[in-house]
Amino acid sequence: MRKPIIAGNWKMFKTAAETRAFVRTFRPKVDNLKDREVVLCAPFTSLWALVEELKGSQVAVGAQNAHWEEKGAYTGEVAVGMLKEIGVRYVVVGHSERRQYFGETDATVNKRTLAVLAGGLTPISCIGETLQERESNQTFKVLERQVRESLKGLTSPADGVIAYEPVWAIGTGKTATPAQAEEAHNFIRKEFAKLYTDATAQAVRILYGGSVKPDNMASLMKQKDIDGGLVGGASLEADGFARIVLYDRQAAAAI
Ligand code: PEP
C-alpha cells in the first residue's frame, strides 16, 4: 500500500515572514494526519522559517533544487547536506520550469536525483511532456526517455518519488483528466518495472502535478496509479491547500 504524498511547490513565492503566517493558518488544519505525507517546498531563504514553524508537526519541509556535489565552487547552488542539516527532508528535482529556464536536462536531473537519495533525503523528480509533444503523439516516447535517462542507476529507487507533470497543465488551469493522468502514470510505472523490478515499480510513488485544485484532487486520487499531488499555485493559499490535503475527508468541507 503506497502512502499518498501531497506536496506544495511554492516556486519563487513567500518570504520568511509570509511563510510563518502561512504555517500558522495551515498547520492546525492538517496536523496529525497519519495516513498521508504532507510537504511544503519553499524557496531556500524561507526554509529555515518553515523548519522552525513546523517543529513537532508531521508536515515535512522540502527544497526546490539541490546540487549533486557535496561542496565546491558552484556559485548559486546549494548542497544536499546543507539542506539536510537544517531539517529539509524532500527536494524537488528537474521541475519543468528549471528544464525550461535554467538548462536542466535529463542528465542533470539524474545527477541531482542520485545525490539527493545518497544524501538521505527524498527526491521528487519531475517528468512530463510539453503541449507540442502531446499534440504530435510523442507523449509516451518522451516519458520513456525521461524515465530512462533521469531515473537510471538509483541504488534505492523505491525511496524516490516521481512527479508526472504535463507541462501544458502547469499553471495553465488545464488539468489532465483523471483518465489522461492515469494512462501516463501507468505507463511510467511500467517503464520503472523495466528499468528496475516489478516490486520497485509497485512501491514507487508517482504524484500528479498540473493545475491541481481543491475540486479536482479527489477524482485524480481515485486513479490506481496516482499516489498524490505536486501542487503549485493552489498551495500558496493555506485554506485551499488544506482542502487539497484533506481531499477525502469531511473536514475539508468545513474549511
Ligand atoms: C508545479 O509547480 O509543480 C505545478 C504543478 O504548478 P500548478 O499546480 O500551478 O499547475
Name the features.
255 residues; 8 strands; binds phosphoenolpyruvate; globular; alpha/beta; single chain; 8-stranded parallel beta barrel
Task: Give a summary of the structure in a few sentences.
With 255 residues, this protein is of the alpha/beta class. It has eleven helices and eight strands. An eight-stranded parallel beta barrel has the order 1-2-3-4-5-6-7-8, surrounded by five helices.
List the topology elements:
Elements: E1 5-9, H1 16-30, E2 37-41, H2 44-53, E3 59-63, H3 80-86, E4 90-93, H4 96-101, H5 106-118, E5 122-127, H6 131-135, H7 139-150, E6 161-164, H8 178-195, H9 198-203, E7 205-209, H10 217-221, E8 228-231, H11 238-245
Parallel strand pairs: 1-2, 1-8, 2-3, 3-4, 4-5, 5-6, 6-7, 7-8
Helix pairs in contact: 1-2, 1-11, 7-8
Phosphoenolpyruvate binds at residues 9, 11, 95, 165, 170-171, 209-212, 230-234.
